[in-house]
Specification:
The protein is α+β, with helices and mostly antiparallel strands. It is built from seven helices and 16 strands. The strands form two sheets. Strands 8, 9, 10, 11, 12, 13, 14, 15 and 16 form a nine-stranded mixed sheet that branches. Strands 1, 2, 3, 4, 5, 6 and 7 form a seven-stranded antiparallel sheet that branches.
Length: 299
């Protein structure tokens, strides 16, 4: 299959997609225009990667998908084990040992309006070849981040712990604006004015050998974030999870993003603030690469 940047678009590809328990040709994986999710954002999804024929922390992702749906008041009609099996089948049928996977669950078209009790819940899993979100040369230089005009909202206003489609609206808007200004991505503050996350990745900072990362009371709990924290702790770094305010940006030395798509990617700029692509970032990039490829970490 072609990469994420294919001019043909994602609707017109060869391959197979797992759709409601069946493997169907890629071009036939379609939904009706009155699908509830299209109108009311009643959809949740995951992003996963396979490395050398194994999907990294697959069961954690499948469990989070089920949990996300429950937060949106619908139940996926497949177990975590069945979702795992579907993803592995997609990898095998499409011969994608190194790829990006997109499981997605949504409410169908049986009912139109805000209420959705009569809709059928669907599940699909697609996968395609997608190298690192940013080329390695760009990653080693460090990303340039704008600061978004939008704020991550209060957990009293959104189901912020779900990976829900509707929560990404401000991410798209912020990333478009950042790219139009020549940046690679955008950083959010939250409803309290604290540093929060990028448009699709968590953020970390270093100072005097200690690694700091924002609290996650209003953002998704990251599976890659958790893995990188474990790697950093294994190297003996202290990890401080806390409220981080924008005026602290000037005092940090290094910064990096983590996520399934981003993996571990250094940051060189956030607005007017500059950061070194230093040894901590480089070490964790290597450790993460070793981890996902099942090599001895830190060797």
């Amino acid at each position: 299959m072609s990469s994420a940047g294919s001019s043909a678009g994602f609707h017109d590809r060869d391959g197979w997609i797992w759709f409601d328990g069946e493997m169907i040709p890629w071009r036939e994986a379609n939904v009706h225009i009155l699908t509830h999710a299209l109108h009311y954002a009643s959809s949740v999804f995951e992003g996963q990667r396979s490395y050398d024929g194994e999907i990294f922390r697959l069961t954690e992702h499948s469990q989070r998908l089920v949990d996300s749906a429950a937060m949106l008041d619908f139940e996926i009609p497949y177990s975590v084990e069945e979702i795992d099996a579907a993803a592995n089948e997609v990898m095998k049928v499409n011969d994608l040992p190194n790829a990006y996977f997109r499981p997605v669950a949504w409410r169908g078209s049986e009912q139109m309006g805000v209420s959705a009790q009569l809709t059928k819940v669907h599940l699909a899993v697609a996968a395609w070849e997608w190298p690192s979100y940013w080329p390695m040369e760009q990653r080693l230089k460090g990303l340039r981040l704008d600061i978004s005009d939008w704020k991550r909202p209060s957990p009293e206003t959104i189901p912020c712990k779900s990976k829900a489609a509707g929560l990404y609206m401000i991410c798209t808007m912020s990333k478009h604006k950042a790219e139009a200004k020549g940046y690679d991505d955008s950083l959010f503050f939250d409803y309290k004015g604290r540093i929060s996350e990028a448009t699709g990745a968590h953020v970390f900072f270093t100072k005097d050998g200690t690694i700091h990362t924002p609290t996650t009371d209003c953002i998704l709990e990251g599976i890659t974030r958790k893995a990188v924290i474990e790697l950093a702790q294994n190297r003996g770094f202290e990890i401080v999870v806390r409220d981080i305010m924008p005026d602290e940006l000037e005092g940090f030395e290094q910064s990096f993003l983590t996520g399934t798509a981003a993996e571990v990617t250094p940051i060189s700029e956030i607005g007017p603030y500059n950061f070194e692509v230093g040894e901590i970032c480089k070490a964790l990039m290597k450790d993460y690469d070793d981890l996902v490829h099942r090599r001895q970490v830190g060797a």
